[in-house]
Amino acid sequence: MNGVAIEPAARADVPAIHAMIRELAEYERLEEQVVGTAAALEEHLFGPHPAAEAVIAKADGEPVGFALFSTTFSTFLSQPGLWLEDLFVRPEHRGRGTGKLLLRHLAQIALERGYGRIEWAALDWNEPALGFYKGIGAQPIADWITHRLDADGIERLVHTS
Fold first, then answer.
1. Could you confirm whether 115 is annotated as catalytic?
2. For position 123, what pLDDT does the model report?
3. Which of 27, 32, 44, 99 maximizes the CB count within 10 A of its CB?
4. What is the pTM of this model?
C-alpha cells in the first residue's frame, strides 16, 4: 500500500523520530512541552532498560511517520496490552494509508505477542484523528478519564505524608 515500508526503528532513526515528535507537538499546539532530547529518546528506546519501542514509516527510504508504544497490563484480562503513545504521519503523506499501515503493524505485533488490547488517547479537538480512528473501528472509552502525575506531582506525592 502506497510504497511505504514499516520497520522497527533503529538507533539511526532517533533523530528523525525526535524531529517528528516536535512536528507532532507543533500540530497539537504543545511545543513548549517537548523538553526531551534525542539522546534521552535513544536511551529509553535502545539503552540497557528500554521503556518503549518504535516503528518508523519510510517512503523511498525517507522517514514519513512513526508510532511509539509500550506494554501495559490489564488485570481484568490478565494479559498485557499495547499502549500507543504517539502516532504521527507527516502532513504531506497523510491520506495515503500510512497511518493505517502503522496501526496494522502494531496490531500484528499485538497478535504475535498475545496482547489483549491496543489503547491510546487522542485530543478531543483533533477531528481528523478521531475520524481516522473511528474509520478503523476503534471505539472511544467514554466512561474513563485519563489522569496524569507529572514530575512535580510525583515528587510531591513521594514527599507528602
1. no
2. 86
3. 99
4. 0.91
